[in-house]
Amino acid sequence: MSLDLKTVRRVASLARLHLEEGEDARLQAELNGILGWIEQLQAVDVSGVEPLAGAGGTAMPMRDDVVADGGRAEAVLANAPDRAGEFFSVPKVVE
Amino acid sequence: MHPTDFTIRGALEALGEGIVTSEALTAAHLEAIEALNPRLNAFVTVTAERAMEAARASDRRRANGVARPLDGVPLAIKDLFCTEGTRTTAASRILGDFVPPYESTVTANLLRDGAVFLGKANLDEFAMGSSNATSAFGEVENPWKRGNDDGTRLVPGGSSGGSAAAVAARLAMGATATDTGGSIRQPAAFCGIAGMKPTYGRCSRWGVVAFASSLDTPGPVARTVEDCAILLGSMAGHDPRDATSADRPVPDFAAACARGVRGLRIGVPREYRLEGMPDEIEALWQQGLAWLRAEGAEIVDISLPHTKYALPTYYIVAPAEASSNLARYDGVRFGRRVEGGDLKDLYERTRAAGFGAEVKRRIMIGTYVLSAGYYDAYYVRAQRVRALIKRDFDEAFRSVDAIVTPATPSAAFAAGEKQDDPVAMYLNDVFTVTANLAGIPGLAVPAGFDRQGLPLGLQVLGRDFDEETVFAVGTAIEHAAKLTAVPQVRAFA
């Protein structure tokens, strides 16, 4: 499979990456190089093999459904680029 | 002998006997950093005052008879571990001057045991790279030089390049590192030191900036195998805040180093014999096996048939997880923001300005393989191949106790080489990436030198949660190799 420019731009939009003029063509070449190399996985017989999501092996542990942390607004907001009171602020979303 | 030449074991003994103080050890390392870091660029942040305060507090504890297991040992911390009150960058512009309001579990465990933190070590951006060239804070120089060629700058490997260079050059006695596809073992091998990627789940990931969560594994680098074992003993342990952290006791790793290898069965996977691999690497591998045989181990040929699919599998799984993990960097809650016309534009411009080229490439690959229509063909298929790679190891470990391979397919290369072709760079991790996919422990141990005098390492792989056998085999190789050469660029040289 090889990516066309339209797909590169669509993926960049999904990934929330602004592309500069000409960057889409460069990425297209790089990504197609990597995807071409990855293509060899199509040769592996994986019939009947369950996908392995993680290496942990053990089941996810359960914990008590109780509040264990919170009430630290100042610490949470300390690194915010912009804030209003106890809230993160962003440009207006709804007109 | 300078205080920077101590091993961790040696320093702990000297501290215990009152031969040296942590204040003196720490001051010597800070002096070495001041002299050499402008050249090596191994640290992005040096916390000199905090280090000296911690050293004096350590000396007071020792004087009062309440010294802890690592009391007074000066360490470097890879700048991927969140440190409360100290800037944490992941070597990316996008985190800006992020100062974590919390301490990662691994670094908290080291502080609990009395370690002194010298500062934050350089790395590839978000730990994505094999040469430390993708850092927003500039490249790191390998303290080793080729033969008489003082002019060529060699890479320290990556992503834990700052950690490995700092320890090799004696700017720190040991360091924390992380390994997602080889990021502990490859730089350790390039810098002539030991590096241990423990079993997935052995060390908590809580407070470590996430790259690929099912692969990321914190671990130590140090100048001896035993020092790695000592550090891992402090770093490891169950953490309820990481759901993948293993709830099992931490063995005495340092004691396991001296077990010897008599009666152990050591596997040699035929698929790790690559076409075009330098004959020096092959010779080193055979030498390592001969040493182990002489110590009473039995060498057994094994097969890991899906080895050649490990790297392409990794380059689907890791970018997929990275694209998801790195979605949080959007210029809203922390880090750098670039204003835009609307919220989506703000996100897109923030991320375009904040991420470097390699990180963007991986986010793009990850987003693509997870997108509708490609998810099954790429991502699910990669997870199935991952299961086969794990199965290969499960079957091998029915007949062997450990596996020995080369750590890397070459010695350290020059800065600027392999930068233009992402796939050529990815091949650095050909021997290491399998352990991440399977979750098993892997140790890089210095074992020899190439013709130009550059360090070469061997890798020891073990069963899940059997780091002890890995340390025993690594120590046997280290003792047989009897290496004495030191890097040209080092403290007080």
Automatic annotation (TrEMBL), chain A:
<dbReference type="InterPro" id="IPR003837">
    <property type="entry name" value="GatC"/>
</dbReference>
<keyword id="KW-0436">Ligase</keyword>
<dbReference type="GO" id="GO:0005524">
    <property type="term" value="F:ATP binding"/>
</dbReference>
<keyword id="KW-0648">Protein biosynthesis</keyword>
<dbReference type="GO" id="GO:0006412">
    <property type="term" value="P:translation"/>
</dbReference>
<comment type="subunit">
    <text>Heterotrimer of A, B and C subunits.</text>
</comment>
<keyword id="KW-0808">Transferase</keyword>
<dbReference type="GO" id="GO:0050567">
    <property type="term" value="F:glutaminyl-tRNA synthase (glutamine-hydrolyzing) activity"/>
</dbReference>
<dbReference type="GO" id="GO:0016740">
    <property type="term" value="F:transferase activity"/>
</dbReference>
<dbReference type="GO" id="GO:0050566">
    <property type="term" value="F:asparaginyl-tRNA synthase (glutamine-hydrolyzing) activity"/>
</dbReference>
<dbReference type="GO" id="GO:0070681">
    <property type="term" value="P:glutaminyl-tRNAGln biosynthesis via transamidation"/>
</dbReference>
<keyword id="KW-0547">Nucleotide-binding</keyword>
<keyword id="KW-0067">ATP-binding</keyword>
<comment type="function">
    <text>Allows the formation of correctly charged Asn-tRNA(Asn) or Gln-tRNA(Gln) through the transamidation of misacylated Asp-tRNA(Asn) or Glu-tRNA(Gln) in organisms which lack either or both of asparaginyl-tRNA or glutaminyl-tRNA synthetases. The reaction takes place in the presence of glutamine and ATP through an activated phospho-Asp-tRNA(Asn) or phospho-Glu-tRNA(Gln).</text>
</comment>
<comment type="similarity">
    <text>Belongs to the GatC family.</text>
</comment>
<dbReference type="GO" id="GO:0006450">
    <property type="term" value="P:regulation of translational fidelity"/>
</dbReference>
<dbReference type="Pfam" id="PF02686">
    <property type="entry name" value="GatC"/>
</dbReference>
<protein>
    <recommendedName>
        <fullName>Aspartyl/glutamyl-tRNA(Asn/Gln) amidotransferase subunit C</fullName>
        <ecNumber>6.3.5.-</ecNumber>
    </recommendedName>
</protein>
<dbReference type="InterPro" id="IPR036113">
    <property type="entry name" value="Asp/Glu-ADT_sf_sub_c"/>
</dbReference>
From TrEMBL, chain B:
<keyword id="KW-0436">Ligase</keyword>
<dbReference type="GO" id="GO:0050567">
    <property type="term" value="F:glutaminyl-tRNA synthase (glutamine-hydrolyzing) activity"/>
</dbReference>
<dbReference type="GO" id="GO:0006412">
    <property type="term" value="P:translation"/>
</dbReference>
<dbReference type="InterPro" id="IPR000120">
    <property type="entry name" value="Amidase"/>
</dbReference>
<feature type="active site" description="Charge relay system">
    <location>
        <position position="159"/>
    </location>
</feature>
<dbReference type="InterPro" id="IPR004412">
    <property type="entry name" value="GatA"/>
</dbReference>
<keyword id="KW-0808">Transferase</keyword>
<dbReference type="InterPro" id="IPR020556">
    <property type="entry name" value="Amidase_CS"/>
</dbReference>
<protein>
    <recommendedName>
        <fullName>Glutamyl-tRNA(Gln) amidotransferase subunit A</fullName>
        <ecNumber>6.3.5.7</ecNumber>
    </recommendedName>
</protein>
<dbReference type="InterPro" id="IPR023631">
    <property type="entry name" value="Amidase_dom"/>
</dbReference>
<keyword id="KW-0067">ATP-binding</keyword>
<feature type="domain" description="Amidase">
    <location>
        <begin position="25"/>
        <end position="470"/>
    </location>
</feature>
<dbReference type="GO" id="GO:0005524">
    <property type="term" value="F:ATP binding"/>
</dbReference>
<feature type="active site" description="Acyl-ester intermediate">
    <location>
        <position position="183"/>
    </location>
</feature>
<keyword id="KW-0648">Protein biosynthesis</keyword>
<comment type="similarity">
    <text>Belongs to the amidase family. GatA subfamily.</text>
</comment>
<comment type="function">
    <text>Allows the formation of correctly charged Gln-tRNA(Gln) through the transamidation of misacylated Glu-tRNA(Gln) in organisms which lack glutaminyl-tRNA synthetase. The reaction takes place in the presence of glutamine and ATP through an activated gamma-phospho-Glu-tRNA(Gln).</text>
</comment>
<dbReference type="GO" id="GO:0030956">
    <property type="term" value="C:glutamyl-tRNA(Gln) amidotransferase complex"/>
</dbReference>
<dbReference type="Pfam" id="PF01425">
    <property type="entry name" value="Amidase"/>
</dbReference>
<comment type="subunit">
    <text>Heterotrimer of A, B and C subunits.</text>
</comment>
<keyword id="KW-0547">Nucleotide-binding</keyword>
<dbReference type="GO" id="GO:0016740">
    <property type="term" value="F:transferase activity"/>
</dbReference>
